[in-house]
Structures are given as C-alpha cells and as structure tokens.
Amino acid sequence: MIKFGTGGFRGVIGDDFNKENVSLVAQALSEIILKSGSKKSVVVGYDYRFGSDYFAGWIAETLAGNKVSCLLYTEPMPSPAIMTAVRDEGLDYGVMITASHNPYYFNGVKIFVKGGCDADVEFTNLLERAVMGVKEIKNVPLACAKSAGLVQNYSNKEQYLDNILKFVSPSVKYDKINILYDNLCGVGAKCIEPLFKKAGVKNYTILHPEHDAFFCFMMPNPTEQAMSPLKQSVKVQKYDFAMATDSDSDRLGIIDEKGNYVTSNDILACLYYYLVKHRGMKGDVVKNCATSILVDKVAERLGYNCHEVDVGFKNISAAIRQYDALIGGESSGGLTVRGYIYGKDSVFSSLLFTEMVVAMNKPVSEIVEEVHRFAGYNYVFIEDEIRFEKEDGLIEFLEANSPQFDRKLLRCDHFNRNFKYYFENGCWAIIRLSGTEPVFRVFAECESEEGAKRIVEQLRKLINSYTESVVEEVV
Q1: Calpha distance 273→393 (Å, rounded)
Q2: Domain ranges in the chain?
Q3: pLDDT tens readout for residues 418-454
Q4: What is the dihedral of CA 212, 218, 220, 222, to 10 degrees?
Q5: What is the pLDDT of residue 473?
Q6: Local structure of 293: helix, strand or coil
Q7: 9-155: which CATH topology?
Q8: What share of the chain is helix, strand, coil (3-state, %, to 5)?
Q9: From CA 249, how far away is CA 81, in angstroms rounded?
Q10: What distance lies between CA 456 and its chain's CA centroid?
Q11: Architecture, CATH, for domain 380-474
C-alpha cells in the first residue's frame, strides 16, 4: 500500500521504497495526466540520497512510456528548486526524489502541483487510488526516451538563485559577517555556496560538503543534537553564527554566537519581526499547530493575526494565499515569505536570516532576546517522542480517552493524526503520529520547564497504557 503523508511517499530503500513502487507512482501520475488532457512536461529532480538519481531516471522512463514528456535534472538539487521550476515553467506537476530529513536508509517521492505547491490531500488521495488501479507499467529505456525527445536534460540553478536574490535587500553588505555552515552531507551546499558568492558573503566555512549517501551516519536534519558539534566551534573560532540544512534543503537550523541553539520557533518569529519592523513589510503570519505561541504574540504586538493550520507545509502555503499573509513557517525549521515560492526553502531562509543579522547589526542572541521582550514571551517549549508497538486502533483510543492532566484542560482539537490540548494561560501540548516510524512527536509549551515536562509525562502515561493493553491481548 503506497501512502502519501505530509511530506510525500517515503519508505525504507529496498523494502517498500523500490523500483516497482516508484514506477507504480509514475504510472499512476501518467494516467492522471493523460486523463486530464494535459500536454505539459513533468519536471523530475533528485537529491543526494542513495539511488535518488536512479529512481528519478525510472520515473522519467515510465513517464516516457506513457508519452508524457519529462524535464530531468542533470544534477542533484534542493526540493525548492524543483518547486521553482514548476512555477516558472508553467507546469502542472513536478516530482522530487527525497526523504527530506529521514535517516539514510529512507527515500521518498514528493509531488508538486501547479504554481510550485506541495500536492494537497485531495490530489494525493487521487494518486493513491490511481496506484491501486494500475494494470500495467509502461516504460521506455532512458537513452531511447532522450533520443525520442520525450526526456530532456534540465537545470534551473541560476534562475533559482537569482530568484532568491530578488527577495533580499540590495542595500545590505555582507563583507564582515562570518558564518559556519554544516551541509550535513546534503544537497544544500550546491546552491548555498554560489548564492553566498552572488550576494557578496565572503567569510564562511562549509562542513560536510561531500556526497555521502550515509550522511556520515548523522541524522541529516538540523536539530540541536545534529548541530551540537558546532557549538564549541562557533565560540572558539568566533563565528557570528552557525547554520545547517537538511538533506534536501528545506529546513534551517541556527547556533548563535554564544553556542546556543536557536529554535525554529525563534527563527520564524525573528524573521517576521525583522520584515515588519525593519523592512516595513505588512501582513499576518501562518504557523502549524505544533509551533510556539511566540509568533502569535509577535503578531499581536505588531497589529496582525496569527493563523494556525494542520501539520504539512501545503496547509501553510494555502493559508498564506487565503489570508495574504507575509510569512509562514513551522517548528521543524521550514518557512517561506509571500511572493516567493509556496514551499519551505532553507537556501532562501539562510540568506534572509543572514540579511537580518547584518541589517539589525546585533548578535543573534540579542536579536532573539529583543523579540522575546517585544512579545512579552516567558514560556518554555520542549520536544520529545513516545514510541509504541502497535498503531492499529491507537487513533481511536486517543479519540476516546484523554490524559489525566494536573491542570485544567480547556479543549482538545483533532488535526488529522494530531491531537492538540489547550490549557489556561496559553499553555498547550500536541501529540503527532509520525507517518514513517512507530513514534509520536510530542511538543509542549508552558510557563516552566517542569510544567511542560509533566504534560509530556502525562501523555506518555496514556500511550503506555494503550501499549500495555495490546501486549496483554497478544499474551
């Protein structure tokens, strides 16, 4: 069964992510395209993950086998570059081979639709049904497809970088800033380094620029744990800040000049504050339901609204269009700005963050403190995870049972596979079922770290009670 979650279809390489399943997706997409009567090409990109170039080639072969023309990237590129191509070339569909921030043994397929947006649930449901109805996979060898003109080599690297430069302030000079960048063996350096050169960023050091399908056995995700080795380097070597991007370059992580991890919540809030207060831009902000109330408070103080949506960047981009919001982002490190692409892009946000630091002429830690003071923010935000043995019936269990919290619960909202609990004084917690692992992602925000941890433990106790009951039934 091929299922598309918030970030597309992902699976373990050689198990559920294999040539047959990828070709099934390509065949189903081809049949949808042919049925719609579209004559437009499909752009296909890929990152540095193991076999990504081969999987992209197999997608192209199946499209060609169905007489659907294809623009196939000639080199690995970030996911947002493929989204940019869909928009700029006026295409109906784009395909990206990546598993984003997942471990090295995963790979996946992302689908982009008209305008360069993530495919919505309606389309991915249609695609899943089409996969189930595939009777035959048609394909043409890649060399033959290229000879016939059905597959063409493609690159939009320069256009993609130039598009980013349109959104940064031309008056900002970057000659004095000094940045440490950890590529985490992803594809980001292929664009961030030339972008820095175009923008005039002269002083930077790049770590792990090499192509390593194992990602040096690190998690290719700019979390605090992954970026911990940078903390001492920033202080000792006196960098202004350090940053890192995930494997397909749509998530950004930051370490400040003191070696402190800057959360994605702070990155979003600081950039929103900067764009309104210092660049004079206007508009609301959009966040997903697992993002801090910091940005709500910043929006309120700025005279705007914060709109909350379900997890999945397609929901954020849809709300940006709906409310004409200035910026949208999520606690996992992705964001975009109105007028740019409708998708998260850490190549873009890395330069925008650099612009903010230079333009405000303050250390990163002082910018974060300024934004917290401005918002009157005095909360603690924590993340955790809860593993479980069996998913069947777990969602229904959570719908029927509420944790025994030691504080007054105002309400519980059910966002698809997410349960969010709201308490007094703006405190909240959310429990999210992962689409790729038997684990719940847990987020809690409270007036104290102790209070947030208690909420997480109370959620853990509820999940454990379900797991224990399943084990008893099996025994």
Answers
A1: 43
A2: 9-155, 160-168+175-375, 380-474
A3: 899 999 999 999 998 876 677 888 999 999 999 999 9
A4: -140
A5: 44
A6: coil
A7: Alpha-D-Glucose-1,6-Bisphosphate; Chain A, domain 3 (3.40.120)
A8: 40, 20, 35
A9: 10
A10: 24
A11: 2-Layer Sandwich (3.30)
pTM: 0.94
**Do 160-168+175-375 and 380-474 agree at the fold level?**
no
C-alpha 110 chain-centroid distance: 11
Whole-angstrom Cα Rg for the chain: 22
Lowest mean pLDDT among 185-189, 315-319, 383-387: 383-387
Q: Is 40 helix (H, G, I), strand (E, B) or coil?
A: coil
Contacts of 196 (CB under 8 A, 6+ apart): 174, 179, 204, 351
The CATH number of 160-168+175-375, from 3.40.50.300, 3.10.105.10, 3.30.390.30, 3.40.120.10, is 3.40.120.10
| Count of CA atoms in the C-beta half-sphere (13 A) of 452 | 21
Distance CA 225, CA 206 (A): 19
Token digits for 420? 């969010």
Beta bridge partners of 73: 154
Backbone angles phi, psi at 314, to 5 degrees: -60, -30
Tens digit of each residue's pLDDT (9 = 90 or more) over 291-329: 999 999 999 999 999 999 998 899 999 999 999 999 999
Tokens of 401: 């049972």
